[in-house]
Write a structure and sequence with these properties.
globular, Four Helix Bundle (Hemerythrin (Met), subunit A), mainly alpha
Length: 252
């Protein structure tokens, strides 16, 4: 195994200047994530191992929103925060070891992110039900969990199918624009999502706020339904984007 250099030298390899759009991660998380990364490297853990551990923590944190107890919400938010730190570490480990050149680690990373986010929506609905007895929240949380994954999957599958139909031809402008719409990398794409991404992470922001409001059951439920409304608006926007994606001109 490689000798592990000091933190300053490790940063030069693992934390390129243009790595993050998230200010919270760039200004705060990266300051101490490198020390955890050094620990993982010395322990001989791979980037994929860190990604799996991160996904387990994120799913456990999301699931803790289901029982409807404020102490569990706080614990869940803490685990989600810790998983956010590890989300920085797995990439740093990959860059140091050179494993970032393969897509397997990114695939594991996406599974953990998508699984924990879907689980959070469903668990949050159960949390509202267990705290206030509103069964509608269970249905709303389940719908959010399922539709979020379905819309995302269908958009990605449509683009992948289009790319596969002209493997020898570069992606067309419409395809490139449609692909860019799926990822929030600048303020022109996503707007509110970009702002939330720059501050922290859109759905983890909601989880932290929900945990803080769980000590006030009425406010907790109002916040849930307010988020549901925003989620519907955002999903409609994404579905409209999906129709534009499905209408792009495919290169011949």
């Amino acid at each position: 195994m490689k000798n592990i250099p000091d933190a300053a030298s490790l940063r030069a390899v693992c934390q390129p200047a243009d790595l993050d759009i998230c200010l919270y991660r760039k200004l705060i998380i990266r300051r101490f994530s490198i020390y955890l990364t050094a620990f993982f490297l010395r322990a001989g853990l791979s980037a994929n191992s860190v990604s799996v551990f991160k996904g387990i923590l994120a799913c456990a944190g999301a699931a803790l929103f289901a029982p409807g107890r404020p102490a569990y919400f706080i614990a869940g938010a803490f685990l989600l925060q810790l998983s956010f730190v590890l989300d920085a570490c797995d990439g740093e480990v990959a860059r140091f070891t050179g494993s970032s050149r393969t897509a397997g680690g990114e695939f594991l990373d996406k599974i953990g992110d998508a699984g924990s986010r879907g689980l959070f929506y469903g668990a949050w609905g159960w949390g509202v039900y267990n705290l206030n007895g509103d069964i509608r929240a269970v249905m709303a949380g389940t719908i959010m969990a399922g539709l979020w994954l379905v819309v995302r999957f269908c958009a990605v599958e449509t683009l992948l199918e289009s790319f596969s139909n002209h493997t020898g031809t570069p992606a067309g402008q419409d395809e490139q624009r449609s692909l860019a719409m799926l990822f929030v990398r600048n303020s022109d794409r996503g707007r509110i999502e970009y702002l939330l991404s720059a501050l922290w992470s859109p759905w983890m922001n909601m989880a932290a706020a929900a945990a803080a409001l769980s000590f006030f059951p009425v406010l907790f439920e109002v916040f849930f339904w307010s988020y549901c409304l925003l989620w519907i608006i955002n999903t409609v926007r994404k579905v409209r984007s999906g129709f534009r994606i499905s209408n792009f001109e495919r290169p011949v």
